[in-house]
Amino acid sequence: MKYRNSIALKLVTYILIYESRIMSESTIAEVHDETLMSTSIQKNPDAWFEQKFKEHMQKHKQSITPSLSIVVTKGSLDWAYPPFILASSAAALGWDVDLFFTFYGLSLLKNDLDLSITPMGNTAMPMKMPFGPNWFQNINWNIPNALSTNIPGFDKMATSLMQKTISNNGIASIEELRELSIEAGVKMIACQMTVELFGWDRADFISEVDDWVGAASFLPTAKDSDVTLFI
Amino acid sequence: MSIDHVIAIKGKNIAINYSKSAKQQFSRLSSPVYLEMELLFSCMVTKRIVQVSEKHCSLQVQLNNSVFLSFRPIRTNVCAPNDVDIYEHDAVEIIDIEEPERFIPDWLYIDYSNNIWGGEFGYSRKSKKF
Question: What ipTM score was computed for the predicted complex, to two decimals?
Fold first, then answer.
């Protein structure tokens, strides 16, 4: 019995010695760190603070999800691409995205997208043919406005040529980009005032519209976003 | 046109149609073919179907005995032209995007012409090829 007790006592002693050794080692390390820190503070407090501040800000930045707000004001085929490309790309990167559709931009939320394009006033718009041999496709048809405005159905033709070019290049359609954006969690916010102003009905729009609000309700979201764009 | 095949990637169904030439080519294959649906986020958002090597085939499913299909949404730091192999091109840096399953398409059309695998895929039911 005595023998057993002495073994147990020895074991407890060993454990205590071992633990105290670990504790003392970590305490020594902490004291060493603190000494180093206090030495560097004493040596150059500004540099120490600056470094700590940078480290803290970097950690803070990494922990925040970036956000993007876009005010979408145009409803033509060419102007429909930028907001949806930016929104779907940002969402793909894990950003929080809010799109506020107002005035003609609200057309982009309609059930039936009937978007068109016009060369009128679009001086930078190339007029190229999406079919035929390469040399033919490379010709830029500079058609004068006086002619294009007087030919009935010219805008329809320009729209279908643009759609064909988009499809030939494997570029996602507006309908697809809108669907991608919705899948990716982009918030679609419609301007309530525009709906009333143009005499539209809410039933004309896709069911995925997240909110029907006025500008005053959207502004706080835009204010807090990292990136705010007006398209 | 009726749907030839329905497969699921990460729980999302994709309705597939094959062109006549693609069906014919399937029966002639002696080694596995790896096809990838690529959704490229660059200057524009583009879609394409390309043949890739086995090592690049991610989120993969088997279509038949010799054809494997994968889907990959990619963000590139340059506007990758359509005919560039993004895995081999030095100027393209591939950045995988978050939660790729969110971008899995609804429909797929596989074609084989001029000895090249191709086709189209999409999201909206209205823009379906079949």
Answer: 0.75
